[in-house]
UniProtKB/TrEMBL annotation:
This is Cob(I)alamin adenosyltransferase. The keyword Transferase applies. Residues 26-48 form the Cob(I)alamin adenosyltransferase N-terminal domain. Coiled coil: none annotated. Residues 1-32 are annotated as: Disordered. NCBIfam families: cobA, PRK05986.1. One of its GO terms (biological process) is cobalamin biosynthetic process. Its EC number is 2.5.1.17. Keywords: Transferase. It is an enzyme of class 2 (transferase). The keyword Transferase applies.
Length: 226
């Protein structure tokens, strides 16, 4: 039976493909190139064989660039495709009906989706209520984190709630310590605290290079931002 490609192997292959060709590579004939790639495949197979551990990961998507939630939703889709149960809890967001909630509704009971914020701070203008809503969202999230039926839990914009002081990092770290060993938890949002980054297994920082809102005055658009 053919197995799915290992994502680490794909990333390493892409990294190699993006590197400029050396003089040696450009001078190789077809047989020499094939032999070189065969040796590389053997090295990669050995690396993968030495890394056989599986564990539930704490994953952080942070940074000022766009795509933090989008990347996390890609992992949600993969998990659903494997038949796993997934929970999404959105902090801050919730003043509007998110399109992703409608898209994932077709998966029925396999996914739990809760948008429990009431919008940005300049919209709510009520810090005490914002704190209350964030704490309620965290209590909901914690129930999913502790529940062994859920393979993946996405805490969307929880880093922003931490940055604004609606949650404290100690309670989030304590909650992560309660997850089952095979449960993955993704935490998205700008300004992830150092303590959370140190606890995480996988951290990705999205870097902003250009954005149409800033450079061109293009407003948020359906299908792109929401």
């Amino acid at each position: 039976m053919q197995t799915n490609p290992n994502s680490t192997e794909i990333e390493l292959q892409a990294s190699s493909a993006n590197a400029p060709a050396t003089a040696e590579q450009t001078s190789l004939d077809a047989d020499q190139y094939q032999q070189k790639m065969r040796r590389r495949k053997e090295v990669q197979a050995q690396r993968l064989a030495e890394r056989s551990l599986e564990k539930g990961l704490v994953i952080i998507h942070t940074g000022n660039g766009k795509g933090k939630t989008t990347a996390a939703l890609g992992m949600v889709l993969r998990s659903l495709g494997h038949g796993y149960r997934v929970a999404i809890v959105q902090f801050i967001k919730g003043a509007w009906e998110p399109a992703e909630k409608a898209a994932f509704s077709h998966w029925g009971e396999q996914i739990e989706f809760h948008a429990l914020g009431e919008g940005f701070t300049w919209e709510t203008q009520d810090r005490e209520r914002d704190i209350q809503k964030a704490q309620q969202a965290w209590e909901t999230a914690l129930r999913f984190i502790q529940n062994p039926e859920f393979k993946l839990v996405l805490l969307d914009e929880v880093n922003v709630a931490l940055k604004l002081g609606y949650l404290n990092v100690e309670q989030v770290l304590a909650g992560l310590n309660q997850k089952p060993t095979d449960c993955h938890v993704i935490l998205t949002g700008r300004g992830a605290p150092t303590e959370l980054i140190e606890r995480a297994d996988l951290v990705t920082e999205m870097t902003l290079i250009k954005h149409p809102f800033r450079e061109q005055g293009v407003k948020a658009q359906p299908g792109i931002e929401y």
